[in-house]
Specification:
Blueprint (H helix, E strand, L loop, with lengths): L2 E3 H7 L1 H13 L4 H16 L5 H5 L4 H17 L14 H7 L5 H6 L1 H19 L1 H8 L4 H5 L26 E3 L18 E6 L7 H12 L3 E6 L11 E6 L2 H8 L4 E6 L2 E7 L6
Antiparallel strand pairs: 1-2, 3-5, 3-7, 4-5, 6-7
Helix pairs in contact: 2-3, 3-5, 3-8, 8-12
Protein name: RRM domain-containing protein
Length: 280
């Protein structure tokens, strides 16, 4: 497999590095929040809003600060259930720069695609190209490189975007160069990212075949696997199941901006929400 050195990676991402330096050094923004802002701008570029980062490099510092604040407000919306009041609010300055409307609806209707995509950019791009800048602003010494210690980033683990491991590397360190340095938006989502939790009404037993029939009929070939409640006594019914979908896009399609979606098949109700792993 071919590889690319950290020095070459820095050269490829020069504009991204300049933008991040501007956030954390010139504007003195919080490093953890700035990582999330950069990952969000990269995700928006992937979603069809090209050259956001290149365009903002020609703006004044106060305007860049405003654009970063707009992104931060969008990310905050992931942590509240009161989404209806903000669903149609535009990001006015970002929209003006991109010459097309970008609203919070893009984030809310694609909530789980956004979370998964931003998380992937954090861990596959940002975690590799901003390390030396983070060392500078966090006051880390070069000894960290020799000891192979990961950086402690304030705000992580994040309640929405999880953990972030950033290990300083020497400039001649080689990374595998598959895809965009290992990033591929179509297959990087974990199984948990693509899983929904289903619940059923007691007294109205739902079968695995009915679950597959319902979601396949409504959303096409979206089902990867179904895991019904285990260890159910023979005289009782499963009351819940995990539905693993083909992509995170299917999760957003099913929920359509809601926290819980309700379905009906053969006179029986099924409630669906995003699965959240609860480690014991």
């Amino acid at each position: 497999m071919t590889s690319i050195s950290l020095e070459e990676l820095h050269a490829y991402h020069t504009i991204d590095r300049d933008a991040f330096s501007r956030l954390v050094i010139t504007l003195r923004r919080d490093p953890g929040d700035s990582l999330l802002v950069m990952a969000t701008w990269l995700w928006l570029e992937e979603m069809g809003f090209p050259n956001i980062i290149t365009k903002l490099m020609n703006l004044t510092d106060p305007m860049v600060n405003i654009l970063a604040d707009e992104v931060a407000s969008c990310l905050n919306s992931f942590q509240t259930n009161n989404t209806q009041t903000v669903a149609n609010v535009a990001l006015p300055f970002t929209s003006r720069i991109m010459e097309r409307e970008i609203s919070l609806q893009i984030f809310l209707q694609n909530r789980f695609q956004a979370i998964s995509g931003i998380k992937n950019f954090l861990n596959t791009v940002c975690a590799r190209i901003f390390t030396d800048i983070l060392q500078r602003v966090l006051g880390m010494s070069s000894q960290v490189i020799l000891n192979n210690h990961s950086l402690i980033i304030p705000g992580f683990p994040h309640p929405i975007f999880g953990t972030l491991t950033i290990v300083p590397r020497a400039m001649d360190y080689d990374f595998p160069s598959g895809g965009l340095w290992g990033w591929n938006p179509t297959n990087n989502a974990s199984e948990d990212d693509r899983t929904m939790f289903l619940t059923f009404s007691r007294g109205f037993p739902v079968t695995r075949d009915e679950v597959k029939e319902l979601f396949t009929r409504m959303y096409g070939d979206c089902v990867e696997s179904i895991h019904m409640q285990e260890n159910v006594p023979s005289n009782e019914q499963p009351l819940f199941a995990r539905l693993v979908l083909q992509s995170v896009a299917n999760v957003d399609q099913i929920l359509s901006g809601r926290r819980i979606a309700k379905f009906r098949i053969n006179g029986k109700h099924i409630w669906a929400r995003k699965y959240e792993r609860r480690d014991q």
